[in-house]
Every structure is written in structure tokens, then in C-alpha cells.
Amino acid sequence: MKKRILAFGVAAGLVALGFGHTTLSQEFGFLRSKTRDKNFLSDEKFLEMVRTYRGMYRVTEKPYLMHLDVQVRCNFSLSEPGKPIPPDPFKSSIHGDRYCDVFVSDDAKEPIQNAGKTYPVGSVIIKAKYPDDKRGNIELFTVMRKREAGYFPDHGDWEFTVVDGEAKRVLSRGRIESCTDCHDGYQNTDFVTRVYLQTQEERERM
Predict the structure, then answer these.
(1) Does the domain at residues 55-205 carry the CATH identifier 3.30.70?
(2) What distance, in Å, lies between the first and last C-alpha atoms of the chain?
């Protein structure tokens, strides 16, 4: 009888130990991921990430000529950080052509190359925007980062950010309605436009 009680006690202890280990692992894992996310969400950490854009995968073979209506929606004044105001799109005239290159994080490569796939949380898409096709002076960065489910549910849970051309200031960040005005038309590709990947024939069919 004593042996049975002892065996039962040992078994119960092992089960409790296993449950405790699993629970603690999950809890500390959550805390670690929460800490990493909190650090990444600070503007300074975010800007550090944007400044590494050249090390990311470039989707565009050559700078893509942006449509005028997209130019207007994607820009903010440099006057007050974090506060978009009516169009003062770039440092120079709104009427000229604008070009962009698109860079993505490693986890965004497969979804952006295969239309229709959902991007994993943490995916980053950066557009560097120029006044010409020479890849010289960058006037503005716009950034999409996939956030956790429920962050912005009606718009793919994307966080939108506008950064100045030197990647030194966050001009606007978060649930930016002027960004969703454009991206909501691309729900079939997880709210990512991808027009810069389409062939001329595909664009003409649209």
C-alpha cells in the first residue's frame, strides 16, 4: 500500500512539474516576445530598422513610376512629427513624377511574390520614394508592418508609418486612414498593392 501511495505521489509530482514547466515557458516566452515588440515599437528602434532598408530584399528591378493619386495620399508635411496635415506631399512640387523602390523583410518575400498569401506577423514592407528614377535623393519612406490580430482588423492588421527621407523622424504612425483609402482596394493580396510587380500586359487588363 505504501509503495502505491509513493508511486502515486511521484507520478503526481512529475505531472505538476511538467505542467509548471510548460506554463512558465509559455509565460516567459510571452514576456520575452512582448518585450521585443515593445522595444521595436519605440520610434527610435523603428527608425533604426528603416535605416537598414538597403539590406532587405528589393522587390523592384527599377524605380516604379507612381500614380499621381497615390502620391497625394502617401505624403505628409514635415512641420509637426506625428501630425498629418493637408497635402504638402514632398519637399518639392506635387506636380512632378515620383518613383519608388520597394524593400521587404525576409518573412514578407514569399507572400509578396505569390499574390493572395497572408503575411506573417512582423512582416515589413518599405517604400523609398524619389523625385526621379536615379535612386538618388530619397524624399520619403512609407512603411507597412504586420501587427498582431485585432490591431487594425478591418484593414489587415497593418500598421502604417511615414518617415522623413533621412529616416530620422517619424512623421505619422499607426492606424492612418489616408493609407487605408488606397490599400483597402487590395484585400485579395492582404492589403498590399503589388502593382509594381505587375507586367505591362497585366496592368492593361485591369
Answers:
(1) no
(2) 80
